[in-house]
Specification:
single chain; alpha/beta; Arginase, Chain A; eight-stranded parallel β-sheet; two-stranded antiparallel sheet; 10 helices; 10 strands; 15% strand; globular; binds zinc ion
Length: 378
């Protein structure tokens, strides 16, 4: 399919050059199209091949064609620096991503393959996340969304894995804490999969609350359990909400109402960072949950309400998963409308679906147990 380039977009610029006169209620979108050529070199078709440049190109095309970017300020991302990647990662990890890209490709970790374009793509993705964080932390805008790839939330301090090389959100959080006077941050990870990297990075940090709603893998990894609550000074700041596969919209809304909203209110952060994965959509080829764009609108609306009620600076969102390029557009459109305080739009991916009653009951029981586990820390 031919994807036409967007018209009227700003050229690449360095983060320090953003327009600080933007009104504070502005929403910005930072896009990486053209600087995300990385494609894992596969010898045969594989699920991981869905993580490719079309995710961004087709999303931008959808947003433009549906006029979803009206009133939204758009920027192009610029490349981050090695020093910025080192705010979180070991030098070994950063050097191996660079070296493996120079060599033209190779294996960097479990489900983490380099290509000759990986270094440039990963550093531009990180640049987009950093800009998204900086725009909100400096009060240049209220909410920002970095439409970038490859994703980041599985990357730990020392390991690339699960299609992730640099932990974009974690580095952006460290950067605004170091340079913008931000003290407390709540990270909300809504990707289908557990954000193991981000959880590990902040597991003992009392100033960063990590909340993850994810599909719990009862069979294989066994990580992301609700009993993982943080350690040492960070005890109580890690909140895992593992839901059953095929969880519907109603379970996500219950998790947001009963756990996420009260936890963030009690933590009272300066900013919310969102690891914005959209692979919990029912039509996603990799995730196995059963929600649609209405839930992403619901989450975004709640984030906007929390920003207002807790008098925060705002929220910044960084793309993680979401591998059906036909549903990423509607989900991100619904997200942007939620952040703008608009009513839930009726979109083409929304359809009546039967809820699995057993799944809903299971999730209710899990959410009760989560509350019993984490509420002593509130
Ligand atoms: Zn995912």
């Amino acid at each position: 399919m031919y994807i036409h380039p967007l018209k009227g977009y700003k050229e690449a610029f360095t983060p320090s050059q953003f327009d600080s006169t933007l009104p504070q209620d502005t929403i910005t979108l930072i896009d990486q199209s053209g600087s995300d050529k990385h494609v894992a070199p596969f010898l045969k078709p594989s699920l991981e091949a869905f993580e490719n440049p079309e995710r961004i190109e087709m999303t931008l095309q959808y947003l433009e064609e549906t006029k979803s970017l009206e009133g939204i300020k758009t920027f192009k991302t610029a490349q981050a620096t090695k020093e910025e990647a080192l705010l979180v990662h070991k030098p070994y990890l950063v050097q191996s991503v660079e070296l493996m890209s120079e060599l033209g490709g190779g294996v960097l970790g479990e489900a983490a393959w380099a290509s000759e374009d990986l270094w440039s793509s990963a550093m531009h993705a990180l640049g987009g996340a950093l800009l998204a964080g900086e725009l909100v932390a400096s009060k240049a805008c209220r909410h920002s969304f970095a439409l970038v790839r490859p994703p980041g939330h599985h990357a730990t301090t020392s390991s690339s894995m699960g299609l992730c090389f640099f932990n974009n959100v974690a580095i952006a959080v460290k950067k605004i804490q170091a340079e913008n006077g931000i003290r407390r941050v709540s990270i909300l990870d809504i990707d289908d999969h557990f954000g193991n990297g981000t959880s590990e990075i902040f597991y003992e940090d009392p100033n960063v609350q990590f909340i993850s709603i994810h599909e719990y893998d009862y069979m294989s990894y066994g990580i992301g359990h609700y009993r993982e609550v943080g350690h040492g000074n960070g005890c109580g700041t890690n909140i895992n909400i593992p839901l059953h596969m095929e969880s519907p919209d109603s379970s996500y809304q219950t998790a947001m109402d009963k756990v996420v909203a009260p936890a963030i209110e009690r933590f009272n952060p300066d900013i919310i960072a969102v690891s914005a994965g959209f692979d919990a959509h029912f039509a996603d080829p990799i995730g196995e949950m059963a929600i649609d764009s209405r839930t992403y609108w619901y989450i975004a609306s709640m984030v906007e309400r929390l920003v207002k009620s807790c008098d925060m600076k705002g929220s910044f969102w960084v793309l993680e998963g979401g591998y059906n390029p036909l549903t990423l557009g509607p989900c991100i459109r619904a997200t942007l409308e939620g952040l703008q305080g608009k009513p839930c739009p009726e979109l083409e991916d929304q359809e009546p679906r039967d809820e699995e009653e057993d799944v809903v009951k299971f999730n209710r029981r899990i959410i009760k147990r989560i509350l019993n586990t984490v509420s002593p820390f509130f």
